[in-house]
Write a structure and sequence with these properties.
mainly beta, 9 strands, 14% helix
Length: 187
């Protein structure tokens, strides 16, 4: 093989290789890249909606009413805004729970309420409601338990009690205050 044939063959091999690289190489098309808005977009969202969650036996246990319900793709947590939590079972709890925001855990075992959380008990035995206010509250719906380590303010008519931390049995209406308990009577 002479040098001319060798150079021509080498040029053709290099040209074929470059053509293969250019044609086969994936193109970075800016239109295919997700925008920051698309990356932050929810998996789904609902406005002025209600979610009904069932207990272990499948019976509807509670409902969450919210102005906005959002599920984001990176995880399966469900975020809520302007929330109301209602029990549905026969042992319906006399407590009404409201919060500025909420979150349902991935396994649906815990509902976290935060931002101006209010528990209101309009018990039939008393014309005066009992209100518990705190900044965050974890609810274990299946056991009717709600807890917080934050400051709580409990009002009933002219009585006010403040404390640090709370464990509440929402079915039995029992509130257990954890520490720094102080009571006030407003004349």
């Amino acid at each position: 093989m002479n040098i001319r044939t060798f150079l021509l063959t080498a040029v053709l091999v290099v040209a074929a290789l470059l053509t293969w690289i250019i044609v086969d190489r994936p193109q970075n098309n800016p239109e295919d890249e997700p925008t920051s808005d698309q990356r932050d977009a929810p998996g789904y969202y609902l406005k002025v909606a209600t979610i009904t969650i069932g207990g272990a036996d499948g019976t509807p246990l509670y409902q969450l009413h919210a102005q906005r319900i959002t599920q984001n793709p990176p995880d399966t947590r469900i975020m809520l805004s302007d929330v109301r939590f209602d029990y549905l079972e026969e042992r319906d709890s006399p407590w009404e729970l409201r919060a500025a925001q909420g979150e349902i855990s991935d396994d649906q075992q815990v509902v976290k309420l935060f931002g101006e959380v209010r528990l209101i008990n309009q018990n039939e035995e008393s014309s005066t409601p009992t209100t518990v206010m705190t900044s965050s509250l974890d609810i274990l719906p299946e056991s009717y338990v709600a807890t917080t380590d934050e400051e709580v303010i409990i009002t009933h008519g002219r009585y006010e009690i403040t404390a640090k931390g709370l464990a509440a049995d929402l079915n039995q209406g029992v509130l257990q205050l954890r520490s720094n308990v102080h009571g006030y009577f407003k004349p």
